[in-house]
């Protein structure tokens, strides 16, 4: 399992796609984004256009653990991105965030093939002015710490350059 962290437009998604494409296909792209507005729908379309066959896309805005568990044995899986998943879970008033996070970690532990997780590192900025944004930043940091402890490799991507924080070079 590889955790790829980085800021917005850091190159983390392209880097993660390269890790998966180094494996035999077909590859499973697990998308957590939701097209709430025109701009987000355009971003989603651009990402999809960048991934022709043998990429297969599965949408998992909330039930990410189930999609990871259902991946065929040996199939390389790319999840992009965990901070969108976290946002979706946090905004779902019926969701139990600790249980959802535990389920995600368990599905990662049990993954039956190569797994690459992409997430935004949001802890480098200023302290947000509102409680929800501060809670999101804190929850993302806790999630990243737990996943980094579990991961074989952790990579921080800055300006398109990967910095290996844990594990070997890909």
Features:
single chain, 170 residues, alpha/beta, 7 strands, 42% helix
Structure report:
Belongs to the CobU/CobP family. Keywords: ATP-binding, Cobalamin biosynthesis, GTP-binding, Kinase, Nucleotide-binding, Transferase. It is an enzyme of class 2 (transferase). GTP binds at residues 6-13, 31-33, 48-51, 80. Pathway: Cofactor biosynthesis; adenosylcobalamin biosynthesis; adenosylcobalamin from cob(II)yrinate a,c-diamide: step 6/7; Cofactor biosynthesis; adenosylcobalamin biosynthesis; adenosylcobalamin from cob(II)yrinate a,c-diamide: step 5/7. This protein is an alpha/beta fold. The protein has one domain (2-166): Rossmann fold. Helices cover 42% and strands 22% of the residues. It contains six helices and seven strands. The chain has helices at 12-21, 38-49, 64-70, 82-91, 97-109, 131-150, and strands spanning 2-6, 27-31, 55-59, 77-80, 115-120, 153-158, 161-166. Strands 3-2-4-5-1-6-7 form a seven-stranded mixed sheet, with helices on both faces. Helix 3 packs parallel to helix 5 (97-109) and helix 5 packs parallel to helix 6. The longest helix has 20 residues, at 131-150. The radius of gyration is 15 Å and the shape is globular. The N and C termini lie close together (12 Å).
Strand order in space, largest sheet:
3-2-4-5-1-6-7
State mean pLDDT (0 to 100 scale). 94
Task: Provide the CATH architecture.
Answer: 3-Layer(aba) Sandwich
The gross shape turns out to be: globular
Q: Which fold name is given in CATH as the topology? A: Rossmann fold
State the CATH superfamily name: P-loop containing nucleotide triphosphate hydrolases
Proportion in β-strands: 15-25%
Can you summarize the main beta sheet? 7 strands, mixed
Write down the CATH class. Answer: Alpha Beta
Tell me the Rg in angstroms: 15 Å
Tell me the distance between the termini.
Answer: 12 Å
**Classification by helices and strands:** alpha/beta
Helix percentage range: 40-55%
Number of strands: 7
Total helical elements: 6
pLDDT < 50 runs, ≥5 residues = none
SSE pattern? EHEHEHEHHEHEE
Domain unit count: 1
